Amino acid sequence: MSLLNQDLDTKLSLNENKNGLESLDIQINEGEEVPFQDKGHKPRELTEDEKLKLESDQQLVSEFKRNKYELDAKKNWDLFYRRNKANFFKDRYWTFREFDELNEDHHSIENDESMTSQKPIKKLIEIGCGVGNFMYPLIKNNKHIFVYACDFSTDAIQLLKSNPDYDTNRCLGFVCDITKENYLKECLPENELVDAVTLIFVLSAIHPDKMRKAAENIAQVLRPGGIVFVRDYGIYDHSMIRFEKGHKLDEKFYVRQDGTRTFFFSLEEIENIFLKPVENSDVKLFEKSINEYVFRETVNVKENLRVPRVFIQSKFIRTNSHFSRTC
Ligand SMILES: C[S@@+](CC[C@H](N)C(=O)[O-])C[C@H]1O[C@@H](n2cnc3c(N)ncnc32)[C@H](O)[C@@H]1O
Question: Considering the entire predicted model, what is its pTM?
Answer without folding.
Answer: 0.88
